[in-house]
Amino acid sequence: MEYKVQRQLTAAIENVPGRLADISEIISRHHINIEGICVVDNVEQGVIRLITTQPAEVKRLLKEQDIYIVEADVLTVELTDQLGALAKITASLATEKINIDYLYCTSQREGIPTKIVFKVSDMVSAQRILGALEVS
Q1: 64-88 pLDDT tens trace
Q2: Topology annotation, domain 74-132
């Protein structure tokens, strides 16, 4: 199991047709890859979370569009499709009283591990725990 700390960008966006397409186009036009994305909605707006190959540049581009960005460090964990792998990770974090604020996944492609994005309450301890786990 491989893990690393990555910079995540979060923004509140209008919950209207085409808004996500606009944001994706801006990022794509600048040849920046989106490695992870999560979009959730509430009544009046959506929340988009992005992991990209160039977070500082994406932040700049979106700020030019008057989109307010919040940055956070998250853990990304690469896992192969193995029964119980997520259970082992989440149980290990829970044992150490580390809260998982949220998580989301990337899609899995043949031969490429799934990437799980974790926002946790204690990054340092979570990294120590993940480093000691035997999960593939």
Answers
A1: 999 999 999 999 998 887 889 899 9
A2: VC0802-like (3.30.2130)
Nearest CA to 95 among 63, 128, 52?
128
What DSSP character marks residue 80?
-
Residue 108's pLDDT is 64
- For 7-71, give the CATH class: alpha beta
Q: What pLDDT score was predicted for residue 116? A: 86
Return the domain boundaries, the chain.
7-71, 74-132
3-state SS class at 59: helix
Task: Give exposure, 21-39, as e/b (b: 16+ Cβ within 10 Å).
Answer: eebeebbeeeebeeebbbe
